[in-house]
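If your schedule permits, I should be very grateful for your opinion on a structural question. The matter concerns a single protein, recorded as an amino acid sequence and a row of backbone structure tokens. Could you please explain, in whatever detail you think fit, how the structure tokens follow from the sequence? I set the record out below, with my sincere thanks for your time.

——
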Amino acid sequence: MNSLRRQPSYLRRRDIGGGTRALAHKLGVTQPLLYRYFPSKDDLIREVYRKVYLEPLEIGWEKVLSDRSRPLRVRLQEFYEIYTDAIFNRRWLRIYLYSGLKGLDINRWYVGMVKDKILTRILRECRHDAGLATQGRPSAAELELAWVFHGGIFYYGVRKYIYEAPVLEDKAQMISDALDIFLAGFERMAESATDRRRAPIKVVG
């Protein structure tokens, strides 16, 4: 079913919720043949998720983020330049937004992947850089800080490629400015955590 794998943009043009009969007609195959490769619509959606969402991110990003021989800021700048090169296009963003509006699983899968594979890794590296323990899960406050940072970069792509609104054309500078804010915020959070550990225990009595 190579024809499907070559045409994920169909779902952009005809809506992510389009029926399998219309999809089969578009691809020039019969509906029974489509079901031979994808027994259910959920299987079809999983293939779209793999092809459109996961394959573009096979960029060795884990190695980029975890290479502690390089400064953290350099790693984060490089990662987000590569990441945005992969997802900042109308097809990728439109499928993502449409699937969210339709309540499909694609968005939930992707958000879970970003949290578990990207943001948790970034926060672990931030904690290591700040001399904090890296075991265990990030705190809710740390994750929220990371989501605000990541979401701001993502929304730059939405504004540019979906809304066609004016943006700072120097994407690398936008990422650098966002990193300034994120790393400063994490530094304050780390200092607060350190201060709490160092606070003397009051003895009553």
In short: The first helix runs from residue 2 to 5. The mean pLDDT is 83.
